[in-house]
């Protein structure tokens, strides 16, 4: 188990002061220019082809201010990319582009080529973002585990995390099989992400019997740096809750 000596609380102010030393380079002027061009093209398309009710919801979503939290921002980017990939499916192309023939107009051939390349680029970007999130989630979990006992308790924690994530994935799969939309699926996935954070907050603010049980059985170190590692901590509760059930009282501090 790693030593906690010398660790300090990781707060919003601490992170802000740290990153102030490394200012981000300004965005290229091309970003604003290309964004304006894309919006102009989109408006022209909407004039020629009015959106359906579902497409109108996507337009409203795209017009909203980007989420401030980087975690939520990443999930929204994933959702938007999946919506774009869905709209770029060949079945959604104009008929003259979908069924190209030797006699097809050159502009239809060019449009088919552009749409195909766009879909490939978004697929690649989406997979890159998914991989980035998965790798970082595992890295955070493994870092947290270095502060845990490296015995049967650590094994129980890993098993519970795997079981918890399987249950979450099964919940998503069931929603998809029911015919839910991409928007509905990402709404559930974000709710699951918030559940992970909320359970960590419960752990950090636990009192009484519950806090004693967590500290004794799991060996959670009393150090504020763990507040940063919200990913993966939902695994504690499936292990601890059965033990807590016999201590349910206003003083126990057990999550309800």
Q: Would you mind describing this structure in some detail?
A:
The protein has 256 residues and is mainly alpha-helical. It is built from ten helices and no strands. It has two domains: 137 residues, no CATH class; 79 residues. The radius of gyration is 24 Å and the shape is extended. The two termini are 30 Å apart.
Uncertain spans, ≥5 residues at pLDDT below 50?
217-256
Provide the number of structural domains: 2
Structural class: mainly alpha
- The count of helical stretches stands at 10
Q: Over the alpha carbons, how many angstroms does the gyration radius reach?
A: 24 Å
Largest sheet: none
Count of individual beta strands: 0
Give a nutshell description of this structure.
This protein is mostly helical and 256 residues long.
